[in-house]
Known about the structure:
Elements: H1 3-19, H2 23-40, E1 48-50, H3 62-70, E2 74-81, E3 85-90, E4 97-101, E5 104-107, E6 118-122, E7 125-126, E8 132-133, H4 139-149, E9 155-159, E10 180-183, E11 186-189
Parallel strand pairs: 1-2, 1-6, 6-9, 9-10
Antiparallel strand pairs: 2-3, 4-5, 7-8, 10-11
Helix pairs in contact: 2-3
Amino acid sequence: MSNRERKAVIRRERLAARDAIPVDLRTEYSLAMAEYGGDRLEFVPGTIISGFFPIRSEADIRPLMAHLRTRGARLCLPIIQDRQTILFRELVVGADLIDTGFGTRGPGPEAVVLDPEIMLVPLSAFDARGHRIGYGAGHYDRAIARLREKGHDPRLIGIAFDCQEVAEVPFEPHDVQLEAILTESGYRQF
């Protein structure tokens, strides 16, 4: 079996496990993430942090993002443009949100486009070495590559539930490694 096929199997299994978490428990886990990560994530006021609004059974990190804002973070959300490219638009209090594709909402085209310094990254699976499996479309991998081409090196913090951890993610040279992971049981750096 190729690495690509192995990743697809792991992705399906871990997303099914995530989907099986009852909604009320996902909410409780998401609040625990805000508690664990809200003060542990180190940054200076004004740091640009990209988050995301949840789709499907993802963790809801809006409480975490709100806490990071109170600590001085400048927040942005990913917007998928032309079905391939992620842009990060600034999320300001009171801004109107629009449908941005893939079941998500975010700031409209009038919002400032930012380059995040810290990225809170959704994923399908992760391992104890910081390797991750995304959703298979490569959106975040391409966004990170573009940021690096511009001379940026964003810190990558994975967001997942404990049930998404696997013994080993097939890792290839082009794969992007996480600096840390935030789950309902805590914040771990790799």
